[in-house]
Each structure stands twice: as structure tokens, then as C-alpha cells.
């Protein structure tokens, strides 16, 4: 097996105190997440701790795995919160056979995940939720579904809630060559991925090795380029 940054990032997340966990919500839906190791303790053990860390749910945007979206935030946040970083359905290790495709369905799955894990009332303190990009829409639906008894604070970042068809057309014109938003956001070749990177990354390095893009496509994590930039800039 060749070198892959996927393994490196997962190791760093592990060193921050998070552990991978997979929960079968029902016969059709399975959610994979990384959670603070303290959340794997029984509720009685949490209650006996002198200082209780509040749970914080981090919801990623379109395409990356959860821990990759939040790789730069996990370390500082893990020192103050008990983190829950799920992979949304159809991303990372989360899957479903349900035909439903909506932010509300994503939110319902996450709400069930929290319940199964015993996170939030009446088991533990209320949860704060942060979502970025597509995850911001899901965060809104999580807060709406669970209500103020469960959700204490909500952070929605970089979510274009007012985006319309004109914005999509303007983006395609800037991209050049892409015939649809789906084609732009779901690259199939390294050339497609380079085009997306030029749009998505501020001050993209002049040279990015071809193997980086090949590995991104292989592991189906298009946000991988951000990790490369984080390391080398």
C-alpha cells in the first residue's frame, strides 16, 4: 500500500482524543462518526466528573469526510468540548438504502445518532451545533428538529442560503468547461479536480503534484487539496 494522507489525518484526529464509531440506526441506515473518547463512557461516569465538557456537534459541508472538513478545528475544540463529528449520509463511512434525499433527512439521521449515543437530554447536557456550507443547512434542520431543550447554540458558517439559478450560471461561467453544477462538484478526472480547486481554494499553489489529485479521487475526498495546502503553505 502506498503513502496516503488519509491515514495521516485520521492519526492526527485520533491523537486529539477522538475515536471512530459506527452506529446502525436501522436496517437501512448506518452513520459513521468520530467522537471524543469521554462520550463512550457510561452516563454515570460522565456525571461523576468534576468538570463536564459540553457536547459540540460539527457538521461538514458537501463532499469531504467530517474529520477532514474540521481537521484544523478539532484540536483546539477538543480541549473544551466533547466532540461529535459525523460523516453525513452518502459521504465517508455513512450509508443508507433510503431513497430520500434532503437536508431534513440528513438531520433526522444525526438526531437519531445523538439519541443512540446518549448525547443530550436527559442523558447529558444540551448540544451546540456548528455546520459549514452544506452542513449549515443540515445544522439548521437539526436544531429545528430537536428544539431548544436539546440544542443550546447554533453556528451556521459559509452557507449560501440565498443562492439561486443565476448564481449557478455565473459559477459555471467562471469555471469554464463544466456543463452543470453536478459535473463541476463531482470531478471524475484530475483535470476536473484541478478546475474545481482553482475555484474553491484561495491562492492555490502554482504546483500541486499529480499524485495528490489521483489520491483525492481514489479515496473520494475532494477536499483533500485543502490538507495539502494546510501542510505546505
Structure description:
The chain is built from 11 helices and 7 strands. The chain is of the alpha/beta class and 233 residues long. Strands 1, 2, 3, 4, 5, 6 and 7 form a 7-stranded mixed sheet that branches. Helix 5 (103-117) crosses helix 6 (134-146). This is Alpha/beta hydrolase fold. Residues 56-202 form the AB hydrolase-1 domain. Pfam families: Abhydrolase_6. Residues 1-24 form the signal peptide.
Radius of gyration over all CA atoms, rounded: 18 Å
- Approximate shape: globular
**Runs with pLDDT <50, length 5+?**
44-51, 222-233
Give the number of helices. 11
Distance between the termini: 27 Å
SS elements, strand count: 7
Organism: Musa troglodytarum (fe'i banana)
Domain AB hydrolase-1: 56-202
Signal peptide: 1-24
InterPro entries: AB_hydrolase_1, AB_hydrolase_fold, Meta-cleavage_hydrolase
Q: What's the SSE blueprint?
A:
Layout: H1 5-15, E1 18-24, E2 29-36, H2 43-48, E3 54-59, H3 66-69, H4 71-78, E4 81-86, E5 95-96, H5 103-117, E6 127-132, H6 134-146, E7 151-157, H7 165-175, H8 181-185, H9 190-200, H10 210-219, H11 224-232
Helix pairs in contact: 5-6
Features:
11 helices; alpha/beta; seven-stranded mixed beta sheet; 7 strands; AB_hydrolase_1; 233 residues; signal; Alpha/beta hydrolase fold
Summarize the structure.
InterPro entries: AB_hydrolase_1 (IPR000073), AB_hydrolase_fold (IPR029058), Meta-cleavage_hydrolase (IPR052370). This protein is globular. The chain has 233 residues and is of the alpha/beta class.
Amino acid at each position: 500500500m502506498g503513502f496516503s494522507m488519509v491515514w495521516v489525518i485520521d492519526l492526527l484526529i485520533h491523537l486529539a482524543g477522538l475515536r471512530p464509531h459506527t452506529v446502525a440506526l436501522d436496517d437501512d441506515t448506518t452513520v459513521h462518526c468520530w467522537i471524543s473518547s469521554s462520550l463512550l463512557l457510561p452516563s454515570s461516569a460522565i456525571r461523576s466528573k468534576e468538570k463536564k465538557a459540553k457536547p459540540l456537534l460539527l457538521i461538514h459541508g458537501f463532499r469531504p469526510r467530517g474529520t477532514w472538513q474540521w481537521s484544523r478545528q478539532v484540536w483546539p475544540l477538543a480541549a473544551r468540548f466533547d466532540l461529535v463529528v459525523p460523516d453525513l449520509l452518502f459521504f465517508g463511512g455513512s450509508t443508507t438504502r433510503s431513497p430520500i434525499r434532503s437536508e431534513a433527512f440528513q438531520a433526522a439521521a444525526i438526531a437519531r445518532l445523538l439519541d443512540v449515543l446518549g448525547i443530550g437530554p436527559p442523558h447529558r447536557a444540551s448540544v451546540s451545533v456548528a455546520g459549514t456550507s452544506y452542513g449549515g443547512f443540515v445544522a439548521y434542520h437539526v436544531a429545528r428538529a430537536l428544539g431548544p431543550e436539546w440544542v443550546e447554540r447554533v453556528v451556521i458558517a459559509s452557507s449560501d442560503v440565498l443562492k439561486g439559478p443565476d448564481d449557478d450560471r455565473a459559477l459555471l461561467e467562471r469555471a469554464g468547461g463544466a456543463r452543470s453544477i453536478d459535473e463541476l462538484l463531482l470531478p471524475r478526472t484530475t483535470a476536473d479536480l484541478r478546475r474545481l480547486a482553482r475555484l474553491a481554494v484561495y491562492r492555490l499553489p502554482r504546483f500541486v503534484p499529480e499524485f495528490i489529485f489521483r489520491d483525492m479521487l481514489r479515496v473520494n475526498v475532494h477536499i483533500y487539496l485543502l490538507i495539502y495546502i494546510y501542510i505546505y503553505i
